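A.,

Following up on our hallway conversation. Structure tokens first:
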């Protein structure tokens, strides 16, 4: 902890983030009752994941401009349980270019609940990291039958660095029992400039989203139907060999929350169909490699909670997810003999079904002690059909034959258990303790990606290397192949929070959360060959350890009618992870980092200063040839003016000093530099951002 405080102090002396949006977000680490806090994020943002930028223990892994992925305590992607309005969303892409949070626009988010580290069994299984539960803005009905409630919000924004511009429209109309809303959003952005002024190719994007929601009060609950269409016509991916040429997703969800007899019911039923196309955007780089993905995902979640007494609540429930995936690569006749004449079947008729059952109890033993205990079972059923390469000469037909000869059907039976305890030691000191066993089965690509699966690296890496490089959601420039016989990951975790605050818990709070996890059968990789500065890896089980500490401080420095309100918030975290065989550190771990935010509110004005502080990244994954990065400090500043109930104006400058820096979780720049150079993706330089929001009715 001394190192942590010294780091923050030294950097704060050099530099002191930007115009901030206050979004209701709940964070649990591992509280039995998640604490509501204000979370700061850039107003001009297209990436819902960026709303988590000020959450202890959470960092962001760089992908496309709309598709960054949250990392919680060193674990990311499929290891984190993410639900949006009750729906589980699986990334349907061999490079995970369409992660769950890319399907919701930040302005539609009403509430995020972040459970860092240990997740209660009712909030999800089949994950060993934390959980992120995202809900759209709540349905608000009219107060009486005599008046219709209406609201129209129009918003437009501009970001100078990449000429990012967009607009949204949100219209709501409601009677006392019936609700309807429509939301539409469109934006586009050019390639951004790094701090040295260089335009970074394959960072441009375009997206448009539309959704309609119909709600109805029914007895003591609300039933809602939401239909969403999300379209990304193109999106560059600087740390991948491919870009998105089109991604279209249509989703429907029915949700009910309310009281039925003596039970509180929370239920959802959802379906999503996705068509995804990858290729090389001709404006960014040369070549062609079309890859198509189609998926269908459906499921339900049901939870019933019963009050056994004023002190005890018991919940039982079930969730089910049915996922179907086809991933194929069309031939290129007349372009190259290697990529044809057949269609390359990467994953054919991939199936992954998961059925979960859980029971959980929440008990207030007395005014000072409360617990949450739960157990759940997840049965995962996986299968895939036979595959083929582009041809029977250049494209390793022996691999396809070997894969097809194996049994593809797999079943995993996973057990999760959690114990969360909160103890109020005194009026100014609280202690929280969490213990858990969490499990996750492999995804379809980890088990069934087959190209290059030979164990003899002397066999044709010129062909297999290209195919393997198409399986990569890590942004490291390497190639990957699956293993049908992978075992599920099992994490045993302990997390403790020490919280001190003023007696009323209104003026200040300091929280320190150390955590430790041992992960049996962690899905990492083994080296099977190298070529042209890249490694070719086979997914493999290895035991691993992850530990670290989160720190947060919040304080009201001033509350004065004459001068306004001034508040301070500080967050910092450190994560360390390695394989127990001692061969390598875990990949994509954020180095020691912190953020310091000052917010001043006076009448209609809100001003923000935020400093992002990141130490050198020196502990890297040698197996993936992960590059190191240097320390940096960024200053963002912004101001917001609520001109009236109708008009709100925002102005911000991000990266005020136009610093040129490498992103610790940015991966390797595969577009502007050669893959062999292992050049880290650079962060965005200075950007002047503005937004205008108009509210009618």
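Then the amino acids I'd put at each of the 697 positions:
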């Amino acid at each position: 902890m001394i190192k942590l405080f010294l780091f923050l102090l030294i950097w704060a002396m050099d530099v002191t983030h930007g115009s901030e949006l206050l979004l209701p977000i709940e964070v649990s680490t591992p509280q039995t009752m998640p604490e509501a806090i204000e979370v700061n994020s850039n107003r001009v943002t297209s990436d819902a994941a960026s709303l988590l930028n000020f959450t202890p223990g959470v960092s962001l892994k760089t992908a496309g401009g709309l598709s960054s992925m949250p990392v919680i305590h060193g674990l990311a992607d499929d290891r984190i349980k993410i639900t949006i309005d009750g729906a589980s969303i699986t990334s349907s892409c061999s490079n995970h270019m369409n992660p769950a949070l890319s399907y919701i626009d930040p302005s539609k988010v009403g509430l995020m609940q972040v459970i860092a580290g240990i997740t209660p069994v009712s909030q999800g299984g089949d994950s060993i990291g934390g959980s992120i539960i995202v809900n759209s803005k709540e349905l608000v009905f009219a107060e009486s039958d005599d008046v219709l409630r209406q609201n129209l919000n129009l918003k437009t924004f501009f970001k100078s660095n990449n000429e990012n511009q967009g607009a949204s429209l949100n219209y709501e109309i409601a009677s006392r029992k019936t609700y309807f809303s429509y939301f539409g959003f469109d934006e586009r952005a050019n390639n951004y400039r790094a701090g040295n002024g260089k335009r970074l190719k394959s960072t441009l994007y375009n997206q448009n989203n539309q959704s309609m929601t119909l709600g109805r009060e029914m007895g003591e609950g609300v039933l809602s139907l939401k239909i969403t269409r999300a379209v990304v016509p193109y999106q560059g991916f600087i740390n991948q060999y491919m870009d998105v040429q089109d991604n279209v997703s249509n989703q429907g969800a029915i949700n009910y929350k309310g009281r039925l007899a003596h039970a509180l019911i929370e239920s959802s039923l959802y379906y999503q169909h996705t068509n995804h196309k990858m290729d090389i955007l001709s404006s960014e780089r040369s070549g062609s490699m079309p890859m198509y993905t189609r998926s269908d995902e459906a499921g339900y979640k049901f939870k019933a909670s019963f009050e056994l007494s004023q002190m005890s609540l018991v919940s039982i429930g079930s969730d089910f997810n049915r996922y179907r995936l086809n991933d194929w690569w069309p031939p290129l006749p007349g372009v190259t003999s290697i990529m044809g004449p057949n269609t390359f079947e990467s994953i054919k008729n991939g199936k992954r079904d998961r059925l979960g059952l859980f029971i959980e109890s929440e008990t207030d033993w007395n005014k000072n002690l409360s617990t949450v205990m739960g157990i759940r079972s997840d049965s995962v059923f996986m299968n895939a059909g036979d595959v083929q390469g582009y041809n029977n000469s250049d494209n390793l037909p022996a691999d396809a034959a070997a894969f097809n000869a194996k049994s593809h059907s797999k079943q995993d039976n996973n057990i999760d258990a959690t114990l969360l305890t909160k103890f109020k030691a005194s009026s100014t000191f609280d202690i929280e303790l969490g213990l858990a066993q969490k499990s996750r089965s492999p995804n379809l690509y980890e088990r069934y990606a087959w190209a290059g699966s030979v164990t003899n690296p002397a066999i044709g890496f010129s062909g297999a290397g290209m195919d393997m490089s198409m399986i990569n959601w890590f942004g490291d420039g390497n190639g990957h192949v699956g293993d049908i016989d992978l075992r599920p990951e099992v994490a045993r975790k302990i997390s403790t929070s020490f919280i001190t605050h003023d007696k009323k818990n209104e003026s200040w709070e300091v929280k320190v959360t150390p955590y430790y996890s041992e992960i049996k059968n962690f899905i990492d990789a083994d080296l099977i060959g190298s070529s042209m500065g890249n490694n070719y890896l086979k997914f493999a089980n290895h035991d691993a350890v992850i530990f670290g500490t989160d720190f947060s401080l919040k304080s009201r420095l001033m509350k004065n009618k004459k001068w306004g309100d001034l508040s301070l918030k500080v967050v910092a975290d450190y994560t360390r992870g390695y394989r127990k065989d001692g061969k390598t550190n875990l990949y994509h771990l954020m180095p020691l980092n912190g953020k310091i935010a000052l917010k001043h509110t006076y009448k209609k004005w809100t001003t923000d200063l935020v400093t992002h502080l990141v130490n050198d990244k020196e502990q890297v994954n040698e197996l993936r040839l992960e590059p190191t990065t240097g320390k940096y400090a960024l200053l963002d500043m912004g101001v917001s003016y609520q001109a009236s109930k109708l008009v709100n104006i925002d102005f911000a400058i991000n990266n005020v000093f136009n610093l040129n820096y490498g992103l610790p979780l940015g991966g390797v720049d595969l577009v502007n530099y050669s893959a062999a150079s292992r050049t880290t993706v650079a962060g965005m330089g200075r950007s002047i951002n503005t937004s205008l929001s108009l509210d009618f009715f």
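The first strand starts at residue 23 and ends at 28. Curious whether your intuition agrees with the design.

B.
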